[in-house]
Design a protein that fits this description.
166 residues, alpha+beta, Beta-Lactamase, six-stranded antiparallel β-sheet, 4 helices, globular, binds methionine sulfoxide
Length: 166
């Protein structure tokens, strides 16, 4: 599927994810600060898919309350600050440690509507070097069924790099 975004990125979605993965890895190389890494990924992802990515950001595992996610760097309208594990799509992905694709958020039990314009969503876990869950990447769209397997593969690859590369 062709996507309208930055001219220098490939039009094909899988190729665009591959280019983004390399771009994000290059920018964060040598940066030890985790917030800087999340912020870089949120910015480059949102900017690469402006038509589909309405809200793009991270909910990180709260060090003081490990069964709760707290909002991290994001691009988009106001997000809720905290999400307990098991609640909403983000909390479900955190609890299951797996990507969750939701074509219609209104049909997802317990979905948390931070912005009523969101209609579909994909949430991908981020693990640290030890395999512990560190965060989830949440991408919301105003379109229904905006995300597919290509997004899942692309976002999982990018999230897989975030905390595991120097
Ligand atoms: N929709 C999410 C909550 C986070 S925001 O939409 C930014 C969920 O159900 O987990």
């Amino acid at each position: 599927m062709a996507e309208a975004a930055r001219a220098e990125l490939p039009a094909n979605k899988a190729e665009r994810y591959a280019a983004l993965r390399a771009e994000i890895a290059a920018v964060i190389a040598g940066e030890p600060n985790v917030t800087a890494r999340y912020a870089t990924a949120a910015s480059l992802l949102a900017d690469a898919f402006p038509d589909r990515f309405f809200w793009t950001g991270f909910y990180v595992v709260d060090a003081n309350k490990p069964s709760e996610l707290v909002v991290g760097p994001y691009q988009g309208t106001l997000g809720c600050l905290r999400i307990p594990f098991g609640k909403g799509v983000c909390g479900a992905a955190a609890a299951q440690r797996e990507t969750i694709l939701v074509p219609d958020v209104h049909a997802f039990p317990g979905h948390i509507a931070c912005d009523s314009r969101s209609n579909s969503e994909i949430v991908t876990p981020v693990f640290d070097r030890t395999g512990a869950l560190a965060a989830v990447l949440d991408v919301d769209s105003t379109q229904f069924a905006a995300f597919d397997e290509v997004d899942k593969i692309g976002l999982e690859a990018i999230c897989g790099d975030l905390l595991t590369r120097d």
